[in-house]
Write a structure and sequence with these properties.
Oligomer: single chain
GO cellular component, one term: mitochondrion
Low-confidence stretches: 1-15
Largest sheet: none
Shape: elongated
Radius of gyration: 20 Å
Number of strands: 0
Protein name: Mitochondrial fission process protein 1
Strand content: under 5%
Number of helices: 6
Distance between the termini: 14 Å
InterPro entries: Mitochondrial_18_kDa_protein (IPR019560)
Pfam family, one: MTP18
Family: Belongs to the MTFP1 family.
């Protein structure tokens, strides 16, 4: 077995989706920051209209959906030599896997985390800085939330990688998700 073939068979689900030589506009360009729009919305929640807050989730969710569609389309295009049923199944599985990963790693977990960080920091400020004006407390809370975004990204991504790998391995053992099929 050639080294390249051996490497392909040992790649994780994520490296098989994202580990290609082409530039992935959803991972390797500033477009990636659209996935963090909801975290910014969470940090600014007390300062912006609800429509902008909800809009931040629309932007981040649209990013996730676009990435999932892009990954599925790529697998579909690369699978032209495969039987149509296998090609469609791999396309759907890839799009769903990418969508679930992005949904968890870009929207759900970080949004919840920043929300809880802001709520906690606001609570703490109310307790320890009672003489501080409320306006100042809300802006400090916002700054704490914004400053935590870069801190939480890598641990959440790694945690979602671990979760996805375990879930997909279990689903493969149950026969729900197919094994990777080499595209030649």
């Amino acid at each position: 077995m050639a080294d390249e073939d051996k490497h392909h068979k040992t790649m994780s689900w994520k490296s098989s989706l994202f580990g290609h030589k082409d530039v992935d506009i959803f991972r390797d360009t500033p477009i990636r920051y659209l996935g963090y729009a909801n975290e910014v919305g969470e940090a600014f929640k007390t300062h912006i209209p609800k429509s902008l807050y909800y809009g931040s989730y629309v932007v981040a969710s649209s990013y996730c959906l676009a990435d999932a569609i892009s990954k599925g389309r790529k697998i579909y295009e690369e699978g032209s030599a495969l039987p149509m049923a296998v090609r469609r199944r791999r396309t759907i599985e890839t799009a769903v896997e990418a969508g679930v990963w992005q949904g968890l790693a870009s929207v759900i977990i970080p949004g919840f985390t920043i929300n809880r960080i802001c709520v906690s920091s606001r609570f703490i400020l109310k307790q320890v800085a009672r003489s501080m004006p409320l306006h100042t407390q809300t802006w400090l809370t916002t700054l704490v939330g914004l400053s935590m975004i870069p801190v939480i990204i890598k641990p959440i991504d790694r945690g979602v990688d671990y979760l996805m790998e375990g879930a997909l391995n279990m689903l493969r053992e149950l026969g729900v998700v197919s094994e990777n099929v080499d595209i030649e």
